[in-house]
Predict the 3D structure of the following.
Amino acid sequence: MADWLSRNVRIAGVERALKAGEVLFRSEQRTVGLYEVITGKLRLVRVDRAGREALLHVAVAGETLAEASLFAPAYHCDAIATTNAVVRLYPKAIVLTEFERNPETAQAFMAMLARQVMKLRTRVEQRNIHSARDRVRHYLALNTGADGRNVKLTGTLKDLAGELGLTHEALYRTLADMAAAGEIERLKGKIRLSKPLA
Amino acid sequence: MADWLSRNVRIAGVERALKAGEVLFRSEQRTVGLYEVITGKLRLVRVDRAGREALLHVAVAGETLAEASLFAPAYHCDAIATTNAVVRLYPKAIVLTEFERNPETAQAFMAMLARQVMKLRTRVEQRNIHSARDRVRHYLALNTGADGRNVKLTGTLKDLAGELGLTHEALYRTLADMAAAGEIERLKGKIRLSKPLA
DNA sequence: ATCCGCATATGATCACGATCATATCTTGAT
DNA sequence: ATCAAGATATGATCGTGATCATATGCGGAT
């Protein structure tokens, strides 16, 4: 994570611990930089005057957050710790001058953003699939290893369910059904497709 | 659209017309640059050996496409015209040297990518909302004008339904219900919230 | 060895959005 | 003025994923 930033930037990172519920920044505040989530969860929300929150994103450990703040004078949403959390701040001025001074860093950052865009577009597309089974198939098809047969599972099935936009129950059932139908094989820490596709 | 690129880059753009079904590029091919969709629709897919397609994204007019190709030696998916289409190619070398020569262009590009990431994250979050009504509420809350009361509708309701990941029928019904319940007012080309939230 | 917390299941029920069908209204072209 | 195509509705039915409940398995802490 944060492999996009040069050593110069990384050493300029400032860690900060947040208690659950604590506010990292609020809309309209002057931007100080972008953050990396080290541990815990933050939520990005837009809040109306009545205090209702509209959820924009939940950032978890390893993710970067408020990238657009580099190019804007003020934040456009609120960031609030959902759990106890630790974040690392990369000050705007340092990052931007590093980009100017060292085009390679700038390119690495662009590449990281471009990859994220790709990934997110794919996820949006995945959510257009209504059938749980087809959604799982879509995920498996896009995550097979080089052999086109094995899909390594990182994290728990519950996490995967969240990533797929399914309830864990639905995922458990779907996987059980697919295994019963002989479509997949369930191994320790991975899933194997019965008929490889690559 | 493409307001991120400097004049130098824009004039280097090369247009190309595609017939429906025509392939723009295939996975593994050497990258020549990124594209902007001028008219029509392209789909980005990953194809397995059996010829099955896994849809990654559908790019429509105004969108940019294959941004990550700037930083990779080969494409990682196939791009196929779904309709007759016109695209404009911005050659990799020109774009990249422009980034080095003119940091402002680089920053504009980064900013564009960062905004896209934001937007896509928000959309993914929106898709986590299951109730059609709440999904519409989420959309309205995030798209009110400065007065916190009016939401301008660009395009048709059908388009909006697609953006929300609902069928048009579901959206029509939901809007009708919300209007009947006095939650919203339906004006020409816009929707007004009965109780403003900002 | 025991206990606790959480992941993993699986069952029963239900709400709700998808789907298919049909009708009206709007818009633009000729 | 006429016509066609597409957007906007609205009705009826159905499938399936969400929800609530309950049980078991498993790993880690003490």
User: Anything to note?
Assistant: The longest helix of chain B spans residues 103-127. The mean pLDDT of chain B is 92. The CA atoms of residues 52 and 185 of chain B lie 45 Å apart.
